[in-house]
Target: FERM domain-containing protein
Amino acid sequence: MASALAAKIGLNSLKRRQAKNFSVRICTMESDMEFSCEVKWKGKDLFDLVCRALGLRETWFFGLQYNVKDTVAWLKMEKRVLDQEVPKEEPITLHFLAKFYPENAEEELVQDITQHLYFLQVKKKILEEEIHCPPEASVLLASYAVHAKYGEYDPIVHKPGFLAQEELLPKRVINLYQMTAEMWEERITACYAEHRGRTRDEAEMEYLKIAQDLDMYGVNYFPIRNKKGTDLLLGVDALGLHIYEPDNRLTPKCSFPWNEIRNISYSDKEFTIKPLDKKTNVFKFNSSRLRVNKLILQLCIGNHDLFMRRRRVDSLEVQQMKAQAREERARNCRG
Model:
């Protein structure tokens, strides 16, 4: 039995080696796409193909994510796709998602497609309560989400009940109040009606401007232990590293902004954060899972790089993209 199974596995791997192509399904926040890829392709070859298909040029924010056991991983750009721990069944399913978040969406996001994908991803995280959102902000965000979908409010078209099938508020917010679905719709519609004069794209940007001020926006959390063995959470985001109590993801115990960190080193499951100020204590913590440690390192390096990039003059490519976006928007306004 064992030898038959081994022979079957060996045959499958032989078939893959002999095949010149393999199929991949890419799930974006809006739709799925399928591609035929060459077996020799590296992560970057596939990633570039997806970005071209989407017409996306702000590639530095995004990545291709997949699940490995009970954690997530991001496709490495410099390594062959098939040499990574991607799912083995074809089509291989990968998720095209924002890996890094902007500090200021309005200043940083240039293309409409970039903004739209962020909007959809952040909205999903808020509705699934991965980002905590207070009730008042939830209603306001819901009204901008409605505007982004339905366009300008028109009382003749948008009659009571038009939001009956929409998921617009986190369940936690709905459960806080003894309000019917009709009452919630009335509140959201009243806000929606005040947004007259905005385009759908502008509604999405207003949504992101509110969302980016929420405490859990853009933070990746990881369970860690300090030198004393105390359970804590590490938060990695656009601004730096944050240490939280396990039961409070909203307010960090302490923070290390990127511009105040001299060095982050990692050795044998132990991370060391060395602040620029030598009078400030070095912070050490342990994370026992290798895959999670690799992910923490990736997010630290990527977020730090973007933090520094934001504080330099825009590259020629970004300047050209911004000029092109301004021209397109001006044409749309005239049209």
The radius of gyration is 23 Å. The mean pLDDT is 92. Residues 168 and 333 are 29 Å apart (CA to CA). The first helix runs from residue 2 to 18.
